[in-house]
Design brief:
232 residues, alpha+beta
Length: 232
């Protein structure tokens, strides 16, 4: 029999990959009616956490004190339900299943783009470049994140930086309207990689030691026309 782990990592995995799917299945019975998340989650959590492990004490990683293992599972279940937007959050622990009216068409397109959907990659959209003020350099290459979106660039950048261990806000340094953003972004990345500009050890993907001017030049080379950047 596999040993039952009582670590924060185990609590997170249990909440995300076991508890939440079971809660989601149970929530279907409510249709579009509100429900209290903890009332649905608690019986499921207790069914998956053996009695002898519920009170195992877990110290906080970056603060004094700690909490019981079962409390950590409860906390992660609530946290992930909100962060992963599993349901429509009504506040004070109340949720309801999402309906068609709750689904944003732009969010659907962005999600399809992130998942590598080929059709989504054919959309018109934005190529953008952002960085953090502390690492921006004048007249020489510095780490730039080069990405794509079908929606508002500033909102997309803020979303990407959300929850990151950063002490300053990101700055959008350039954005370019292009057709077929999927193939265009891939071509830009490949050119930069061929020039040995890829930052392999960056805390995230799509970071390159480059300049806004170089990115603009590559876009012009790929598309055959001068891009019209909208710089901040």
């Amino acid at each position: 029999m596999e040993k039952f782990e009582t670590t924060r990592s185990a609590a997170y995995k249990l909440a995300r990959y076991t508890i939440l799917p079971a809660v989601r299945a149970k929530a279907e019975e409510y249709g579009d009616q509100p429900f209290l998340l903890r009332e649905l989650a608690l019986p499921i959590i207790e069914a998956h956490v053996p009695m002898e492990y519920r009170d195992v004490y877990l110290p906080f990683a970056k603060a004094e004190g700690g909490e019981k293992f079962i409390q950590t599972v409860k906390w992660y279940t609530s946290f992930l339900a909100k962060e992963l937007h599993e349901f429509e959050n009504l506040g004070k622990g109340m949720f309801r299943n999402k309906t068609e009216a709750d689904i944003d068409d732009e969010a659907v397109a962005e999600s399809a783009l992130e998942e590598g959907d080929e059709e989504a990659g054919e959309f018109d959209g934005w190529i953008y470049a952002f960085s953090f003020p502390a690492i921006v350099k004048d007249g020489q290459p510095f780490p730039l994140k080069v990405g794509k979106t079908v929606n508002d660039v500033e909102a997309r950048v803020q979303e990407q930086a959300k929850g990151s261990a950063m002490f300053e806000y990101p700055t959008v340094l350039g954005k370019w309207k292009v057709a077929r953003i999927g193939p265009t972004e891939l071509a830009i990345h490949n050119v930069l990689k061929a020039r040995s500009k890829w930052v392999e050890n960056a805390p995230g993907k799509e970071w390159f030691n480059t300049t806004v001017a170089e990115v603009a030049q590559i876009i012009q080379f790929i598309t055959g026309k001068a891009p019209e950047p909208v710089q901040q």
